[in-house]
Hints:
With 412 residues, this protein is mainly α. The N and C termini lie far apart (144 Å). The longest helix is centred in the N-terminal third of the chain and has 41 residues, at 2-42. The protein is elongated. The protein has 23 helices and no strands.
Amino acid sequence: MKNKFLIGGLVVLIILLFVGYKFVLQPYRCNNYYEQSLVLRDSSDIENSLVFINKAIDINQKTEYYKLRGELYVSLNKGAEALKDLEIVIKTDTDYTTYLLRGKAFALQSDLASAYNDFTKVISLNDTIGDAYLNRGVVLGAQGKYEEALVDYDMASKYGIDNQQLIMQRGFSKAGMNDFSGAIADFDLALKGEMATFNNYKQRGIFKYKIKNYDGALADIDSALTKGEDYEAYYFKALALSQNKRLDESLECFDKSIKLNANYSEAYFNKSMVCMQKGNSKLAISLIDKAIALNPTSTKILYRKGNILAFSKKHKEAIKVFTKVLEITPNDETAYYNRGVSYGILGNHKMAINDYSQAIKINSKYAEAYYQRAISLINVNGFKAGKPDCLVAKNLGFAPAAQMFNMYYKGQ
């Protein structure tokens, strides 16, 4: 009988211990993990905060635990992981803060449409949340909607966001609207502390290059290159150096840019310009051929090759290149004109006249084409045949035509 009572007592004790663990100790431990995670998050120790919230979730799958973990994943730029947690949360927690977090997670995954919708939802629930306007502005800027982005940045500032990130993003949107001076002014305000990064110095340098402040561009890009490097930084440094006539240094920077990105056609294209300035047309053509191999339908690059060939008196080859341009853009009056000039120099004035006529058909005010057609008509049909076109070119304000007309046709 004593043994039965003893066994029964042990069973009751085990049950009591289990109940105590399940309903008293375990919830206490779980909540303690959660509280510890919050403390670590608030002290910006995100990695260790994640360790504790994972322990809490292992014990109890509360919505608030998943929400905190989603927030931590967003802080760690882990958009996919954050979305998994926040999709669980949003089933029962539709507070604006959930939509704000999920919008940030969508943005991390480059799902800009979903991010925009969530930030807009936040604003519909509470239109005084500056962070929602800031993040929606960033999304709009990434979509090329710069004017709308600037409106959102103003709203973010109105509702308490006044930090370097806002000022920097505002600068990017101004640059997107080609207001490079305005962008530089914003970067001047924001480019300090943690925002004084390689990319931000590089961007301000690019903006300065765009407004032809080449010395300022070089100073900023050099500051960027003390913090890191990429092909774009060396590329714009090369461009700025070439504008300052430091051609050998420019070529060195183009080489560094190409070494970091051998598939960037613009580097070959612009390096060819520097080679032409140094009188090395052979190397310039070789570089242009590399650019064409990377971007075979770029009429800008093909034009460069055609012009270099024409400059080098290789007019037959130039004609082939301008013909290729016209295959890509059949209504390109400049290609017709340039090909006509090469035909004319080779003495094929009938073909030249055809090309000038096509150029004029596309652009009836193309003064140079009238002038060159006048010269070819003179070569084919005699001196008087050039008078009508020479007069048109003169009336369109083309100075060489006026000189020619006054010298040969005035009074006739």
